[in-house]
Amino acid sequence: MNLESPKVTVDRPAAYIFEQLTRVQNFEKLMPDTIAKFEVTGEESFIFALKGMPEIKLKIKDKNTPSQIVLASAHDKLPFTLTGNINNVADTSCEVQLKFQGEFNAMMSMMIKGPITKFIETLAYNMPKL
């Protein structure tokens, strides 16, 4: 399953947004209001849970300064990545888009497509909070 957030323009340089996203504690600022748990578990990993959803552990898998950061699920049963693509628009602004890629069976895909789409849209729309 491949999902994409809308592209969001942020009034900050790409290098700044990239730096903020490499600090996993900053993801708490991006989370939706339905966050039930957020816990930093290491320098490059964190656990979060939304109300009514299971806990998910994410870790930084790859970094391409200053244009991309890839987070991966730490659970083998739910293999997915969340990629943040950051493109400079001007010296003082950039465009951010999140891409979700996961391998799920058809039934699971149907159940999670809506909530995951809403989740990555919320993360993207909250980028200016960084």
From TrEMBL:
SUPFAM superfamilies: Bet v1-like
GO molecular function: glycosyltransferase activity
Gene3D superfamilies assigned: 3.30.530.20
Alphabetized UniProt keyword annotations: Glycosyltransferase, Transferase
InterPro entries: START-like_dom_sf
Protein name: Orotate phosphoribosyltransferase
Lineage: Bacteria, Pseudomonadati, Bacteroidota, Flavobacteriia, Flavobacteriales
